[in-house]
Amino acid sequence: MTHLAPMIHPLHSLLPVRPPETVSMRTRDGVKLDADLYRPDAAGTWPVLLLRVPCGRRVALTSHYAHPRWYAARGYVVVVQDMRGCGTSDGRFRPFEAEREDGADAVAWAASLPGSSGAVAMYGCGYAGMAQWLALAEAPAALRAVAPAFAGWDVFSDWAYEGGAFRLADAMVWALRTAADAAKRVEDGTGHRVLSDAARSLPIDDEIPSRPQALRDYARYTHYDDWLTNPAPGPAWAALSPKAMQDSMPADVAVLQIGGWYDPRLAGMLDAHDRLKTRGRAPVRLVVGPWSADGPAAAPGQVPTLDTLQLAWFERVLKGEVADRGGPVRLHDVEAGRWHDLPDLPAAEAVLHLSSDGLANRQGGRLELEMPEMEALDVVVHDPRTPVPTVGGHAVPDACGRPDRAAVDRRPDVATYTSLPLDEPLTLAGRVALEVWVEADAPSFDVSAVLSVVRPDGQVLPLTQGHTRVEPGNPTRPLTVAMRATCATLAPGSALRLSLAGSCFPAYPVNPGTGAEPGETRRVDALPITVLIHSGPDRPSRLRLPAGLSA
What is the pTM of this model? Predict the structure, then answer.
């Protein structure tokens, strides 16, 4: 059962705030890191909130959070630090390589600052969220709480690859932005301009779409080639990833994770919650709302800010105030616009079977409760000249969310399977999984899966999706496509639809069909691929959903 959880907005007597001070520290290997310090202009000591950023401490992630003064006025010392090789801090920025040690050193230093009570919490989203996990793995004594948002858990599977496919648009945007910052630090005006322009309009029409000229010319400024040329998990990825360090994380640090349905790193956050929730000695909470990694997305109903969510958490775990309540898991319903509190994230236990008469890419197939009696085969041809575009979802920055994908579903290279309209409301809240019997006439091919709600007015709005690259020799009988979780109450008259295609571009590179790596694939190298989708008793393709909850 679920219930509507009220959003608590704590009331505070605001404190005056001192003008910001620039302060510096030295890491254990002697690198100077600069920070801005905000603290109440009042007697007493206060918990410290530490925000470590790669994008400039003066900006202070105000794209997502209130200005540090807002927190200082509510009784906190706030430290916003430029990471190694960022802003005015010394050193060279190499993603995730130094954040474990630097983060732990920063926590110990922050605990000793003027006005500090000695208790430190960390916050921040994206990279700044992953930096919290890495600092936690070093177990700094003063750290009491972390609040990573839109962060993930594993660098390989949450930042670089998904289902074996390179996260083209997401990885390229971030690489171009960090490269532009690196060029700016050394006053390379031309490089900064070229890279900044490319970040605003991705050069995916380049001769080599996954390795465009801008990134080839300025490879010295970015990690992009290292990620693009390392397409399998292994020691190099584990050395950067909180997932590989989880056994070192202390159990007495409170954890609040804030994720978004349109955030590319949501799956990793769910994995982190599953791993940490059993530790037992400190509270662990997961909140998933109508957000993308770039901030709030449009949604019905009242949506709290990241600040109100985490302030209530900090008041509880740092000050002992009962300012926040709700279940260990709080999910925003993307259809109904309300919140559900759950003890845990439900597993995918209900089954819908794919069924067809062989024309799922023309007139559509079906999602059925019962196994179909007859075998069926649907044939979809992927043409690399006109790949199926990415429409909404989580995988393309600045284009996330729930746009109507009805037009895409009418393409002949998309197979759709739709349920009967519902007679009464149905709430789905939890994980989704897909098992599909599939094969192709090429050594390598992709399978893109999107689960949507078909509203009575004909709109087709995405709920969740998954993508898998099948490498030569990989088993596909059945192929498991890792889809993301969802939370949605379907109204009477609505239906569920599964859409399957051989591409989702530019979220992921167009598979050339040859088995070649994306960084080696020119546009001219890609070949058409015929994909065969089976269903029926002998090859039962099926969609697994969380069991229906009370609406």
Answer: 0.94
Find all residues with CB under 8 Å of 529, minimum gap 6, and list them.
381, 382, 440, 441, 442, 445, 502, 511, 513
Same domain? 243 vs 134: yes
Q: Is residue 12 in a domain?
A: no
Domain count, the chain: 3
Give the residues across from 24 on adjacent strands.
34
Enclosing domain of residue 178: 165-230
- Give the lowest-confidence range in 6-10, 82-86, 283-287, 450-454: 6-10
Cα distance between residue 287 and residue 279, in whole Å: 18
What confidence tier does 474 reach under pLDDT thresholds 50, 70, 90? confident
Give me the helices (H) in 79-157, please.
Answer: 99-111, 127-137, 155
Question: Sign (positive/negative) of CA torsion 257, 261, 267, 271?
Answer: positive
CA 188, 195, 200, 392: dihedral to nearest 10 degrees?
-140
What 3-state DSSP class applies to 204?
Answer: coil
Could you tell me if 90 and 49 lie in one domain? yes
Note whether 140 and 57 are same-domain residues. Answer: yes
Cα–Cα distance between 162 and 166 in angstroms, integer?
6
How confident is the model over 225-277, as pLDDT tens digits?
999 999 999 999 999 999 999 999 999 999 999 999 999 999 999 999 999 99
Q: Please state the φ and ψ torsions of residue 96, each to the nearest 5 degrees.
A: 70, -5
The whole-angstrom separation of Cα 499 and Cα 508 is 17
Residue 2: its pLDDT value, please? 45
What's the rounded Cα separation, in Å, for the pair 446 and 14? 55
Residue 194 is which amino acid?
V
Residue 520 sits in the same domain as residue 431: yes
CB atoms within 10 A of CB 40: 22
119 shares a domain with 34: yes
Token pair of 547 as six digits: 């069991």
Query: Which two tokens mark 23?
Result: 């302060």
Q: Which residues of 238-261 are buried (b: 16+ CB within 10 A; e: fewer)?
A: eebbbbbbbeebeeebbbbbbbbb
User: In a 3-state reduction of DSSP, which class is residue 342?
Assistant: strand
**Residue 1 within a domain:** no
Q: Please tell me whether residues 179 and 308 are part of one structural domain.
A: no
Whether the per-residue pLDDT at 324 is higher than 90: the answer is no
Tell me: do 355 and 333 sit in the same domain: no
Whether pLDDT at 400 is above 90: no
Distance, in Å, from the CA atom of 489 to the CA atom of 151, rounded to the nearest integer, reads 27
Residue 296 has pLDDT above 90, yes or no: no
> For residue 365, what is the domain's CATH number?
2.60.120.260
Task: Read off the amino acid at residue 396.
Answer: V
Mean pLDDT over the full length of the chain = 93
Number of other residues whose CB lies within 10 A of the CB of residue 224: 23
Q: Which pLDDT band holds residue 548 (cuts at 50, 70, 90)?
A: low
